[in-house]
Structure prediction request, 375 residues.
Amino acid sequence: MTADPATPDAMPPGSTLGVLGTGQLGRMLALAAARLGYRVHVYGPEADSPAAQVSDAATVAGWDDLDALDRFAASVDAVTLEFENVPVAAVERLAARVPVRPGARVLAVAQDRLAEKRTAQDAGVPVAPFAEVNDSADLARAVAGIGVPAVLKTRREGYDGKGQRIIRDPARAADAFAELGSKPAILETFVPFVAEVSVIAARGTDGTLLTWPVVENRHRDHILDLTVAPAAQPTSVTEAATAAARTLAEGLDLVGLLAVEFFVTVDGGILFNEMAPRPHNSGHWTMEACRVSQFEQQARAALGLPLGSTAPHHRAVMRNLIGADSDAWAALLAGPGSLHLYGKAESRAGRKMGHVTRLYSLDAATWPPDGSDLP
Ligand code: AMP
Prediction:
């Protein structure tokens, strides 16, 4: 299709969106982009991936394969990502040839827990006390300064509780650091939170900034189990979380999505935990319950299109299907929720295989629904 004179940045339908990363987030992003008439070319090291199964083209190559990156750049009109640990060097290589949204700067911050916490702190967003730990001397100083209990986290590549140790006894701190491979880390206060909430902000090439409602996340074995949307939290909590996400997205000059997670403290405050410049598991509910989902919005931002309304027309509860949970697919198909399966051949323990979202009326009398009424 031809370009629209009213929105000169916008890449017309028929253009190709490049996606770095090939997991379920890329799959749902590709499906959303396809619905708007775009082609999708995914890039990542894994063959027969969830995203490749539903895309026009897939490059199976490493992040350091410069020839493959150059060919990929030549075959797409814009690039976005569904995996925040893409090496910054690969993103910079692509960005010299084609727009990459979000760009390398946002990625560099989101890949490093220390940079992330400092960015939040510098932006005036409350964070739990933390300290940088590079060696055993730093560790001893950090434990003395922060006290116990505390959480030691590797700066890079931790997710779903991986790369973390809770330290309750200062005498065990050195062992915990060794168990994490003595890698650069941060030590932070253990927060006795009453809830975990998250919010996703979307920012377009024209600077438009929108957010979806704040949601509450419940974990099982460190993996997201349920998202309750919207969060049943006081307005003071949801307003503070939304304002913080907006501040961070603006400050990073983001184009794309920024998912930000917070702890809600006993006194009703919020503390920043982490952020990711991509679609987020806690935003899957937007597919059924909002006019524009997180995935469509990311495609819009990356392609320079105007953003669409984030307003929900329903409340929702999303439940993840982890490992063998997805064996119940036939019963779930017959149930009241919308089933999503990610096309993964093997259901290993702890692996996200799919999710199910159940909608509820916006004026439901009780919120959240009780246990008997969940998806
Ligand atoms: P993260 O990878 O930082 O999101 O951590 C995974 C989960 O570990 C979080 O969702 C929390 O449930 C828990 N957690 C992480 N950091 C802390 C902390 N400082 N205090 C208490 N729980 C934490």
Observations:
- The chain has three domains: 16-110, 129-189, 195-360.
